[in-house]
């Protein structure tokens, strides 16, 4: 059986349709979710006044392998749910100025933290690797990291570099499989754990390509990269309505990299940017500080 997204919600949904004995099991779980994660099956069955096989049937009905698996998943679900419930209580209701101030400060903190952790030598080495690459592949999955891979492509193509991006796990494997020496992979991940990215990095390095990871140090992805640009932005505030501020740090790294690459590709990069600007005049006419295709 496929695991539901939320075990607690699944119990709430299935409870009304259960027989009397299993309904007592469900009710007892929902009354004390935290306590349920620390109890033995024998003690729990006694409290619910049912047999142990009844408890096992209930857990398997919810797609669990057994009572231990049920408790582990319940504990994980409860921890995540409590994190967002507590965050929700801290959010002030609909005050635009307060919200804007918190978003602004969150971004400032993330930028400051990322900037203080930038290593000049590593940044220059990464930029030189990208500038000299025959082909550049930008990878990311999930939320911000997938968008960052696209943004890196958007920054680099205008210098005339052969660059592509992908957020698709299958395509990432295929791109890594056709990697060659002289290629560069730029991989973005907040946690450094997504398996498709870790696998792609391992395959690409085995093929002789350079893998530059913008991710958490000591993560699986960091361990598979040939060059690590460490990204450590504390996520000590979790709010259901606030984006993860790590993306501000990712953007800083992207803009620094692309700016250095553009300088390294001079004078060709300037000529290409000039041609782009000229071609855009037909769309918007002459302007003074118009971004190059942004």
TrEMBL record:
<dbReference type="InterPro" id="IPR036388">
    <property type="entry name" value="WH-like_DNA-bd_sf"/>
</dbReference>
<feature type="domain" description="SIS">
    <location>
        <begin position="126"/>
        <end position="267"/>
    </location>
</feature>
<keyword id="KW-0238">DNA-binding</keyword>
<dbReference type="Pfam" id="PF01418">
    <property type="entry name" value="HTH_6"/>
</dbReference>
<dbReference type="InterPro" id="IPR046348">
    <property type="entry name" value="SIS_dom_sf"/>
</dbReference>
<keyword id="KW-0804">Transcription</keyword>
<dbReference type="InterPro" id="IPR047640">
    <property type="entry name" value="RpiR-like"/>
</dbReference>
<dbReference type="InterPro" id="IPR009057">
    <property type="entry name" value="Homeodomain-like_sf"/>
</dbReference>
<dbReference type="InterPro" id="IPR001347">
    <property type="entry name" value="SIS_dom"/>
</dbReference>
<dbReference type="InterPro" id="IPR035472">
    <property type="entry name" value="RpiR-like_SIS"/>
</dbReference>
<protein>
    <submittedName>
        <fullName>MurR/RpiR family transcriptional regulator</fullName>
    </submittedName>
</protein>
<dbReference type="InterPro" id="IPR000281">
    <property type="entry name" value="HTH_RpiR"/>
</dbReference>
<dbReference type="Pfam" id="PF01380">
    <property type="entry name" value="SIS"/>
</dbReference>
<keyword id="KW-0805">Transcription regulation</keyword>
<feature type="domain" description="HTH rpiR-type">
    <location>
        <begin position="5"/>
        <end position="81"/>
    </location>
</feature>
């Amino acid at each position: 059986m496929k695991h539901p997204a939320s075990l607690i919600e699944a119990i709430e949904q299935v409870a009304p349709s259960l027989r009397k004995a299993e309904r007592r099991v469900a009710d007892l779980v929902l009354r004390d979710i935290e306590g349920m994660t620390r109890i033995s099956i024998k003690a729990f069955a006694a409290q619910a006044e049912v047999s142990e096989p009844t408890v096992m049937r209930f857990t398997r009905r919810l797609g669990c392998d057994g009572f231990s698996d049920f408790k582990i998943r319940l504990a994980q679900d409860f921890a995540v749910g409590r994190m967002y419930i507590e965050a929700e209580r801290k959010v002030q209701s609909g005050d635009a100025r307060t919200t804007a101030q918190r978003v602004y400060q969150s971004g400032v903190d993330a930028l400051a933290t990322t900037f203080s952790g930038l290593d000049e030598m590593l940044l220059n080495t990464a930029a030189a690797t990208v500038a000299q690459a025959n082909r550049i592949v930008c990878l990311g999955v999930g939320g911000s990291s997938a968008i960052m891979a696209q943004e890196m492509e958007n920054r680099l193509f205008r210098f005339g570099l052969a660059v592509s991006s992908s957020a698709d796990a299958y395509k990432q494997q295929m791109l890594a499989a056709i990697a060659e020496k002289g290629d560069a992979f730029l991989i973005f991940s907040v946690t450094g754990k997504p398996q498709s990215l870790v696998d792609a990095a391992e395959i690409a390095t085995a093929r002789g390509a350079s893998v530059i990871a913008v991710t958490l140090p000591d993560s699986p992805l960091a361990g598979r990269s040939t060059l690590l640009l460490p990204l450590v932005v504390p996520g000590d505030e979790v709010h259901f309505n606030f984006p993860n501020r790590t993306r501000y740090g990712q953007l800083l790294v992207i803009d620094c990299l692309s700016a250095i690459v553009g300088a390294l590709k001079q004078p060709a990069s300037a000529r290409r940017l000039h041609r782009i600007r000229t071609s855009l005049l037909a769309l918007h006419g002459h302007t003074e500080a118009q971004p190059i295709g942004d």
